[in-house]
Amino acid sequence: MSFNLTSALTIYRNELLRFLRTVFGSLISPVLTTCLYFIVFGAAIGGRMDQVGGVDYGAFIVPGLLLLTMLSESTSNASFGIYMPRFTGSIYELLSAPVGVAETLVGFVGAAVTKSLILALIILTTATFFVDYQIAHPVFAFFYILLVASAFSLLGFILGLWADGFEKLQMVPLLILTPLTFLGGTFYSIDMLAEPWRTVALFNPIVYLVSGLRWTFYGQADVDIATATGLTVGFLILCVAVITVIFHTGWRLRE
Amino acid sequence: MKSSLPAPNDGRVETILDIRGLTKTYPGRGSAPPVDALKNVDLTIRKGEIFALLGPNGAGKTTLIGAVCGMVRPTSGSIHAFGLDMKHDWRTMRARIGLVPQEMSVDIFEKVHRSVAYSRGLFGRKADPARIEEVLRTLSLWDKRDSQLRALSGGMKRRVLIAKALAHDPDLLFLDEPTAGVDVELRRDMWNTIDKLREQGVTVILTTHYIEEAEEMADRVGVINKGRILLVDDKDAIMGRLGRTEAEFTLSQPLASLPASLSDLPVTLENDGRTIAFRGGDGSGLGKEQVAALAQTLVRENIGYTAIDQRESSLEDIFVKLVEEEGATS
Q1: So what's the pLDDT on residue A29?
Q2: CA angle B74, B78, B83 (to 5 degrees)
Q3: Which CATH class is domain B244-312?
Q4: Domain residue spans in chain B?
Q5: Contact A96/B70, CB-based, under 8 Å?
Q6: Where is the ABC transmembrane type-2 domain (chain A) (predicted)?
Q7: With an 8 Å Cβ cutoff, are B108 and A88 in contact?
Q8: Is B217 on the interface with A (CB under 8 A)?
């Protein structure tokens, strides 16, 4: 199987340029939102809270808040990237170009992942102004963030192919991802929950993501890191498989 | 008779695109029956020619282009270009094909220069600013290179679409209705551009529903209607079959019979001798000349008339006739 590197890089560069064109909207708003969380839950309320598992409350919520922003931003960035050409009709060019699944994913999803990583870096830097935190396993943390950004950018790509209107684009990040992240242990450890809610919470996939990332920060979490990583990798593979099927059947792309 | 083998190659003309038995059926939605957009289409395009695909709206022109360019998945049939089979070598094939779509489908916030350079990269070609400048200059877009597409007029946007399609130096270019909704000046311009492309050796396939456009531009013309190719022939031959001039002379005095001097022309006496009707011509202006000659003859013969009503057959009329002819011969 051949791969058209020039084409893939062209799409990647073009998507990043589109991001720069709207850099204010793309970066300022998620960073501001995260800052507000840090101010309210970290600096203002955090001081009156007990430590969670030996970690200050302000520091405890850093991984969850990072995920809260990254999940919705990765998803919506990638979904807009592919939905806009479908909406304007300029997708004809992509369809008539010598590119297949691989080039499209490297270009569109790669760009969305890059944006998420930039965003993560800015949020983690911003967090240092409000709370003291350390990262126990920085390399593992980086790869975990990369993994989550990739998986949810792929999900966003699928969403951008599925959506037939702007409401549907907004629906998944706003109505599914954000609530699940809030209930997925961003602000608490699920050990704090009473049964049966503790068991119910384990059915929320975001719990594993938050736990996984929290482990890379503080070396301990509700769920063990292997389970969390395994689930995320499995989800990523599932998304790639779905996208491959979509391209081969031409669903929502080719008549 | 239909042959499943490619058209014989006599050594002088080289085939660049070969379509065999191409069928596209859209599944029915709800209670609507399935729609056959293309029915068993065979079409061979010669290298270096300008081929016009002529047909009314909904004839299947855009579907045919879409099948070759990758927007439409054929239900059955085969497509070969540059001797390659699309099923296996679609990457190599598509890298050498350009498409100018009918709709203004562009990212309107993009700048002209970037948009065209992007197209080149997307098709796998190395960045080449000199080549992009050349393309922009040829299409009189160089002065607008830093404008956002939304700031351009409709005609200028269409030129950008052409520039994007040419940015990767394709050998085969599809133009879907290049002059639909375009003013006279730009249409002239477009024709000149296509002429230049021919000189550079680019093979051009354009679709149109204007007979004049096919007549002006094409070397060969294919007529398509309701998903079927009705005929393919050299332009001159096809214009002879397509064209039909109708004229009616309303006479001031009814005639009992036609004068002998009119026997050479395709005229009849109608409406109880009050109307002389002309039906003929070959679409290349002969009909109009003959009607003018007829008018002069009538004056010489001292036959007075009060009105002349002349018209060229519409494409629809011609299709109806072609379909009838096809039905009669098969």
Answers
A1: 84
A2: 130
A3: alpha beta
A4: 15-96+171-241, 244-312
A5: yes
A6: 21-250
A7: yes
A8: no
Q: How far apart are CA B134 and CA B156, in angstroms?
A: 16
> What architecture (CATH level 2) is domain B15-96+171-241?
3-Layer(aba) Sandwich (3.40)
Tokens of A231: 């689930």
Whether B108 and chain A come into contact, CB under 8 Å, resolves to yes
Q: What kind and span of H or E run contains A15? A: helix A5-21
For residue B142, the 8-state DSSP code is G
Which amino acid does the sequence have at B266?
P
Enumerate the residues of chain B whose CB falls inside 8 A of the CB of residue A14. Answer: 118, 121
> B97 touching A, CB under 8 A?
yes
Asked if ipTM goes beyond 0.90, one says no
Say if the Cβ atoms of B97 and A99 lie within 8 Å: no
Banded pLDDT at B8 (limits 50, 70, 90): very low
CB of B49 closer than 8 Å to CB of B104 = no
Peptide bond between residue A205 and the one before it cis (omega within 30 degrees of 0): no
- Residue carrying the six token digits 């909704």: B181
Radius of gyration of chain A, Cα coordinates, nearest whole angstrom: 19
Of the residues A6, A92, A104, A246, the best mutation for testing chain B's interface (the one with the most B CB atoms within 10 Å of its CB) is A92
Alpha helix locations (H) across chain B? Answer: 61-69, 86-95, 112-122, 129-138, 154-166, 184-199, 211-217, 235-242, 286-300, 315-329
List the domain boundaries for chain A. Answer: 5-249
What DSSP string runs through A143-188?
HHHHHHHHHHHHHHHHHHHH-SSHHHHHHIIIIIIHHHHIIIIISS
Residue corresponding to tokens 């022939």: B233
